[in-house]
Automatic annotation (TrEMBL):
Residues 96-116 have a biased composition (Acidic residues). Signal peptide: none annotated. Pfam families: ShK (PF01549). Residues 58-92 form the ShKT domain. PROSITE patterns: SHKT (PS51670). This is ShKT domain-containing protein. Residues 1-55, 96-119 are annotated as: Disordered. Residues 1-11 have a biased composition (Basic residues). It comes from the Eukaryota. Residues 15-54 have a biased composition (Polar residues).
Length: 138
């Protein structure tokens, strides 16, 4: 129960940090196929796929794209995520060469990266809680 509560808190904190870290949404048009945005049971949204002829690579431009996708940013901030996090939001299909390259990245599995991020956020929370406690004493 304590672990679940800690994870919930860290996800909330990550969502808050993510909102602060993201630049203002780009309002330029992005070519899309027709289709409505619908949400599913997962944290990802079923978004219209980018036009395959748009020439954009199937990559994530930001290092936090996978984390943002997990907390629902693909649907909550679709314009930004379509531009910056195409791969994590499932907006495109990586080419075969890209998929083969991904197999080499097994040195640091996703769970380990998530654990490191959770530890970082927990440390940040402890620092904040300490500051808050000191501020209340004043």
């Amino acid at each position: 129960a304590e672990v679940a509560e800690r994870r919930r808190h860290i996800r909330t904190q990550l969502a808050h940090e993510t909102q602060q870290a993201q630049p203002v949404e780009d309002t330029s048009s992005v070519p899309l196929t027709t289709g409505a945005v619908t949400t599913t049971g997962s944290s990802r949204a079923t978004l219209p796929t980018a036009n395959p002829s748009d020439g954009q690579p199937c990559i994530d431009k930001q290092t936090l794209c996978a984390a943002w996708a997990k907390i629902g940013e693909c649907s909550q901030n679709a314009k930004y995520m379509l531009k910056e996090c195409r791969k994590s939001c499932g907006l495109c299909t990586p080419e075969v060469a890209e998929e083969e390259d991904e197999g080499d990245d097994e040195d640091e599995p996703e769970a380990e990266v998530d654990a490191q991020e959770m530890d970082r956020l927990a440390l940040q929370k402890r620092k904040y809680d300490g500051l808050l406690t000191r501020a209340r004493r004043i």
